[in-house]
Amino acid sequence: MGYTIAQKIIKAHLLKGEMTVGSEIALRIDQTLTQDATGTMAYLEFETMGVDRVKTEKSVAYIDHNTLQCGFENADDHRYIQSVAQKHGIYFSRPGNGICHQVHLERFGIPGKTLIGSDSHTPTGGGIGMLAFGAGGLDVAVAMGGGAYYITMPKMYKVNLTGRLQPFVSAKDVSLEILRILSVKGGVGAIIEWGGEGVKTLSVPERATITNMGTELGATTSIFPSDEITRAFLASQGRENVYTPLESDEDAEYDLIINIDLTSLSPMIARPHSPDNVVPVKEVKGTKVDQVCIGSCTNSSLVDLLKVAKMLKGRKISPSVSLSISPGSRQVLSMLSDSGALSDILLSGARLLECACGPCIGMGFSPNSGGVSLRTFNRNFEGRSGTRDGQVYLVSPETAVAAALTGVITDPQELGGCIDIQMPEAFAIDDSAVLAPAGIDEAKDVEIIRGPNIKKFPDSTPLTNELSAPLTLKVGDNITTDHIMPAGAKILPYRSNIPYLSKFCFEVCDPSFSERAKQNSANIIIGGTNYGQGSSREHAALVPMYLGVRAVIAKSFARIHAANLINAGILPLTFKNAEDYDAFAQGDQLVITDIFSGLDQGEITLTNASNGTGVLLKCDFTDRQKAILKAGGLLEYTKEGGI
Ligand code: MIC
Ligand code: SF4
To answer: Is 374 close to ligand 2, i.e. is its CB under 6 Å away?
Structure first.
């Protein structure tokens, strides 16, 4: 049997384990990336490992999420990250240089290499043929220290593309279409390979838009072949030397094959509040729009913004709409400016924001109360925009501009005209905003700068054989990490201050959770399916750990969040029978006994002391995961000598 692209890269990086679906494998990691919102914690963790210099081929620290610097907190964290990077051999991408995934694609991504990043959209690198995973900060810290990255060997899915996209239909519509087909749970446990003749019609940034949103499918990662288009992109970035071709074998086998005819696609839109709530734009046309945001790691490439500029040229946006544009990188912005396209954007009435995540993570530009916001981003979870009742829709840049011009949701195909944009042959290259680390000798003298906002890493509690705790919170299906640990301009500056962050835990679902949890010595949470989908933020595990959460019981978990819970020493347990979820009510007193032997048997009994019901829970952990849980988390485990 032949290999898929992902299997080939896995095989070349396999340190431990068998490549059979469902078994644990350990991978050698070539590159890492962090961003500031998860990076401070990741570097604090890295420091505790006592490794002088990163062991990866390339590690980059980006500052892109939290660039507002409303107070000293962000600014201090940025200084901290800069000094750690300088000392330990990490490249530092300065604030304003761009969004990690966009810059990494442009300047550092290499086909066939492995990358993990403390950000769930790291699979963007799959657009260039990298095997790129989102991970918790602690996993990234371990990889920087030379440790392996552990995952469960995924299934292989293939999406075969045929045909060619019609004018005003773009890669984002492909992402939304696959979300419509598979849902936010449809990619769980799988790597999605994009192939077929239609792939040849997509540029690297378009491919990256698609792999970026594979995260919203719950996929382990997504990947495109590395072909002549990849070579041309790398050449235009002055990096042709890192090109290697990569394709799957003809007889590679897939667990699922989906066919999409690009020619038949029309503009799509995800309605509030889930990226898979997708319909054709036509179905919601005419809805009044208050705000339009163009940018994010999904849609902020040069080609995206040149299209936007062409559609806006000589036109004015609707007086009732506020339009923001955040270019993905300094390279994109400088080329927009040199080509004159920036003026076309500005003269239309758009507002230019920094090359950063910005509104995508609620850092400003929140919609008005109940306001309708069309965004080219990848997530529209409730409250994520910073406005609790904001109505966020996800669209392509073309659909975004159409709405900005007309003031209502509009199918961009109805606007007419032509927006064919060619990829430039050469990108403007200036890496001066990426600071190289100090050399080995000078590094000894680099002092780490720690501001007062950086608080101690919270202590974890080693696992006990019996757990008796109230069911402090019961939630439903598809709970996101934005529910568990919200972000946004008010909270994001405190990502290195777990005690402060803890006040906001589950604020969107239940504002009293944090106070109630603090009163108990231990707490249990029950959730539905796909618990913890969304971001890779380990804060969604560290903060509950700080609040005394010892176990989360759900119908199923999202991959990165389950790994983060284990890393934090919290038991992620699943109901053996999903219907047992109904046997519990918030406030019930729960007891789990014989945890240690249960872990070995793969099954634990949960008793509801309030009504006497007993149900079985699955705990299918690998030996390494059991050892991490017993130690009280990955940090304790590594301190005890585990790898
Ligand atoms: C997100 O899009 O939710 C974020 C903010 O980029 C997160 C990371 C974080 O919470 O810092 C992610 O996707 O992992
Ligand atoms: Fe930044 Fe948004 Fe991308 Fe997350 S999804 S990395 S917040 S742009």
So the answer is: no
Nearest to 110 by CA among 222, 237, 211: 237
CB 354 less than 6 A from any atom of ligand 2 = no
Task: State the number of CA atoms in the 13 A half-sphere of 455 facing the CB.
Answer: 16
Burial class of 379 by CB neighbour count within 10 A (0 to 12, 13 to 18, 19+):
buried
Euclidean distance between CA atoms 218 and 178, whole angstroms? 12
> Ligand 2: does its nearest atom lie under 6 Å from the Cβ of 102?
no
Cβ of residue 103 lying under 6 Å from some atom of ligand 2: no
Measured in Å, residue 120 CA sits from the centre of ligand 1 at 6
Check if CATH label 3.30.499.10 holds for domain 5-264. yes
CA 74 / ligand 1 centre spacing (Å): 16
Neighbouring residues of 247: CB distance < 8 A, sequence distance ≥ 6? 5, 195, 225, 226, 227
For the whole model, what pTM was predicted? 0.97
Q: Which residues line ligand 1 (CB under 6 A)?
A: 37-38, 65, 119-121, 134, 361, 487, 534-537
Q: Residue 372 in contact with residue 393, Cβ under 8 Å? A: yes
For residue range 322-342, what is the model confidence (pLDDT) as tens digits? 999 999 999 999 999 999 999
Task: Kindly state the percentage of the chain with pLDDT values over 90.
Answer: 95
Beta carbons of 160 and 257 less than 8 angstroms apart: yes
Helix spans in 340-468 (H): 341-347, 397-406, 440-443
Say how many Å lie between the CA of residue 189 and the centre of ligand 1. Answer: 20
pLDDT for residue 638 is more than 90? no
Using the atom order of ligand 1, give the atom closest to the CA of residue 482.
Answer: 3
CB of 44 within 6 A of ligand 2: the answer is: no
Whether 580 has a pLDDT exceeding 70, the answer reads yes
481 Cα–ligand 1 center, Å: 9
Structural domain spans, the chain = 5-264, 268-413, 467-487+497-642
> 467-487+497-642: same fold as 268-413?
no
Any idea what DSSP says for residue 492? Answer: G
Architecture of domain 467-487+497-642: Alpha-Beta Barrel (3.20)
Q: Closest ligand to 560 CA?
A: 1
Residue at 162: amino acid letter: T
Ligand 2 and 360: CB distance under 6 A: yes
Which fold would CATH assign to domain 268-413? Answer: Aconitase; domain 3 (3.30.499)
Separation of CA 102 and ligand 2 centre (Å): 10
What's the pLDDT tens digit per position in 473-509?
999 999 999 999 999 999 999 999 999 999 999 998 9
